Amino acid sequence: MNTLRKVARRELAVFFATPAAFIFFGAFLAATLFIFFWVETFFSRNIADVRPMFEWMPLLLIFLSAAITMRVWSEEHRAGTLEHLLTAPVGLPTLVGGKFVACLGLVAIGLLLTLPLPITVSLLGQLDWGPVCGGYLASLCLAGAYLAIGLFVSAQFNSQIVSLIVTTLVCTVLYLLGANTLTSFFGTQTGEMLKLLGGGSRFAAITRGVIDVRDLVYSLSLIGIFLSLNVYTLERQRWAGNPANSAHRSWLALTVLLVANFFLLNLWLAPLGMLRADLTAGSIYSISPATRSYLARLQEPLLIRGYFSAQTHPLLAPLQPQLRDLLREYEVAGHGRVKVEFVDPQEKPELEQEAGEKYGIRPVPFQTASRYQTAVTNSYFDILIKYGNEFVTLGFQDLIEIKSEGDTKLEVELRNPEHDITRAIKKVLYSYQGGGNLFAAIGGPVIFHGYISPDAKLPQPLIELHGSLDAVLAEFKQQAGDKLTINFTDPDADGGQLAERLGKEFGMRLMMAGLLSPQTFWFYMTLESGGQQVQVSLPATLDRAALKTAIEAGLKRFSKGMLKTVALYTPPANPGMAQFGMPSQDNTFQLLQRFTEEEHRIKPVDLSTGQVDPEADILVVVAPKRLQEKQVFAIDQFLMQGGTVVLATAPFDVGFQGRISAEDKKSGLADWLAGYGIRLEPTLVLDPQNAAFPVPVERQAGGFTVRETQLINYPYFIDIRNDGMNRGSGLLTGIDQLSMTWASPIKVDSDKNKERQVVRLLESSKGAWLSDSIDIQPDFDRFGPAGFAQGESAGRQLLAVLVEGAFDSWFKGKVSPLVEEAARQAEQEKKQQEAAQTDPGKDKESKAEQAKPEVIGRVLERSPDSARIILLASNTFLADTSLDLASGASGSRYLTPLQLVTNCIDWSLEDRDLLAIQGRGHFARTLLPMSKEERMVWEYINYGLAAVGLLIVWGVYRVIRSRSRRRELMLIAGRM
């Protein structure tokens, strides 16, 4: 080792003895910085990662390695010193190893000089250091392979230029061997083999942040192979001209044996895909415990089939190996319950026919362009998840995230593959179980409590419903066996003590058959399991089918293996005046509905019946507009049943037709929220920490008004980062950045919420200010580039809040609006009947209208402690137009607001396994908002740091060199 260290030190001294060393390092840094900031346009990408640097690193390392190694042996040839080295009392392996270590040290110095880049990125955004560490490790490994090749080539030639050219060519061929440009000409199996041999494809795997033993062994094998060949080449030169003997044949056999063993080692490790470490934040490329928990619930085989075409879009091709590796991990984690298949439908017509007819999987035409022509490639990039007779398909749009960089350049990567695949598994699992026995998915016993008066006190419709209830419960008892206990109690039987307790705990009180009816009675139902009680709502139609549905909905609340139902209210669309070419200007929420449908069963509701659908497990109300009293009553009573109400509302709404305009919006919920100490202020929040969005603006050109779209930093689009997010709540898992558009501040009365839990979820920055103006159009003529006047800071503003606990109904002590409306209708019918005595035609209509179900008056006056209100103070941040604007500004699909709503649903329904996976997922971590001038400053800082790094290397070399000379002079003086 001492001799090897001396050889390495000598090589380093020779390399730094000339300015060539600093020229090479300077050129390497200049090329790296130019590519990062200019070619890959780092600030335009607006993503906090250093992937562009590592994407070019294999090519940059080719030239750096070739430049470093070109003189190592060629110079010894030219100077005539090679014979002295070969005859020196130093073993050839030590000699070759010392020179290799020196060259690798030089590359390490070059890579070290690039370290300010990721440090800068980490200061500008939330950088995942896992892929960065993987990238540097991959760079060292690949550089080692290039250096070993360079040393071998340098030993063959006397000319440094020839060594440089040949090394560059050989390393380039090695890099391109697994490139998509080459593998696309071959079939799937041949292409996979080429990727196993290619250095570029191996390098890309490590830069994802996944350290695979197979990739490390591949690089070490290349180093071992070419260093062995280097030693053998020098050994041949040492005994050149001598007759062949057994020693020569032994050297040849040993070299062949080493090369063969390195090659066979890679073949032996190729099938072993589990020997790896995931360095990414949250381990997004590994199977999580949450996924394993879903796989453990499988009772039948689960089929996962990947439909991948060998000929596909070049941006999708690198993603196929990643998905294959991940799906194989699902197979291993399933312990025999998961079957994974990979097929190319274009090679198997029978599977292609089945995919199209049975699963709706069809090839997607991708337009590709080569140097000579533009072509259309029809290819498959789909995953099928099938369990029993339930199945879900995931297409390329469900799996990838596209980042646009300019007009033509796109960056494509997997969005969060484990979350997407596990979400599909959850859906088919729950859908399959939902068709079976409800009680099989409930962990503990269930008690049904019926607080019902005797039939003598009940109105006729409820007497019939009581009989239906007995029949329905008998069916459930047959399914459940000992798991279901049925209790019926008359609250008035014990002198009113039970009635008093029900009023205090659940807000139950005597019901009435009508506004003027003297008949009062009890007809309430609850389900209890595991210490949790759920109230069963009285169905709007008093029949057996509706009653059974209501009880099933209550039972599903206790189940963790059923697909949950989300009642979604969105404002009714205004049709506008399409016949005159004037479409509706109202916001739509189609993206929200499609996104939540991926994980849950969605039931659109308008609440006009005064009751939420009995099957609903949670209620989401988005941008409510002038809700009637019956609709507010439906929301109130759902909360009183212990449900969760997610509200996205604010006092203002915004239109996007032409000029941006705001208007006051009455939701109909302001008084209801104020009753619980929650108030939305009639102002808008503006924040200096904001997101850039394309906004239509106007400018004057002479006397002519020009309307155009500009990308500006818009203070009404609040950019919320980690310091404004409550991470401890669990509702923001997997969300690193969120834009709230045209939000209003929330005020929570602490006196009214002493006994409830109040969680501040989202807040603006400290520099936010408020405005009550509805003029939200930027005015560059008055306020310059900012477009708005900077107001006085009002501190952090609350933009989203969770309030949990027991609530008293807004309708406590009041008559049910349903009963009042029924009374009004009865009065109208009475008048119509009086008028019908003089008009026979109206008499027929009135008789037809009399056949209406009787309305039962019931008001739940208090909720259990499990009731929750989640308030998001914006009408627009979930709107399709807002999401499209955000996507256009960022260059990628902006779905974070939709993910927030999904998180609220999963967290509220205590289905938090997917939330855990979502927290591991990849999201585009955007940079902090900065002006153009600030971005230029950061770029110049990196140029300056590169120059400082070179000076430090030069200074360290001078210090080491001076100490070495001083040591040599002392040795000479000692000898004299």
The portion of residues forming beta strands comes to 15-25%
The structure class reads alpha+beta
Helix content: 40-55%
Please give the count of helices.
33
- Biggest β-sheet: strands ordered side by side in the sheet: 18-17-19-20-32-31-29
What is the gyration radius calculated from CA atoms?
36 Å
Shape: elongated
How many β strands by DSSP? 32
pLDDT averaged over residues: 82
Largest sheet: 7 strands, mixed
Distance between the termini: 30 Å
Low-confidence stretches: 577-584, 844-851
Fold and architecture overview:
This protein is 46% helix and 18% strand. α25 (629-640) links the parallel β19 (618-622) and β20 (644-648). It is elongated, with a radius of gyration of 36 Å. Strands 18-17-19-20-32-31-29 form a 7-stranded mixed sheet, sandwiched between helices. It has a 4-stranded mixed sheet with strand order 4-3-7-8. The protein starts with a helix and ends with a helix. It has 976 residues and is an alpha+beta fold. It is built from 33 helices and 32 strands.
Provide key terms for this protein:
976 residues, 7-stranded mixed β-sheet
Short description:
46% of the residues lie in helices and 18% in strands.
Outline the fold blueprint.
Layout: H1 2-16, H2 20-39, H3 42-45, H4 51-69, H5 74-79, H6 82-87, H7 92-112, H8 116-124, H9 129-154, H10 160-176, H11 180-183, H12 188-197, H13 199-207, E1 210-212, H14 213-238, H15 246-269, E2 276-278, H16 289-296, E3 302-308, H17 319-333, E4 338-343, H18 349-358, E5 364-369, E6 374-379, E7 381-387, E8 390-394, H19 396-399, E9 400-405, E10 409-414, H20 417-434, E11 446-452, H21 460-480, E12 484-489, H22 497-506, E13 511-512, E14 520-521, E15 523-529, E16 532-536, H23 544-556, E17 565-569, H24 590-597, E18 601-604, E19 618-622, H25 629-640, E20 644-648, E21 652-655, E22 661-664, H26 670-674, E23 678-680, E24 684-686, E25 690-701, E26 704-720, E27 738-741, E28 746-748, E29 757-763, E30 769-771, H27 780-783, E31 798-804, H28 817-836, H29 840-849, E32 868-872, H30 880-890, H31 896-908, H32 913-919, H33 932-975
Parallel strand pairs: 3-4, 11-12, 17-18, 17-19, 19-20, 20-32
Antiparallel strand pairs: 1-2, 3-7, 5-6, 7-8, 9-10, 11-15, 13-14, 15-16, 21-22, 23-28, 24-30, 25-26, 26-27, 29-31, 31-32
Helix pairs in contact: 1-7, 2-4, 2-33, 4-9, 4-10, 4-13, 7-9, 7-14, 9-10, 9-13, 9-14, 14-15, 24-31, 28-29
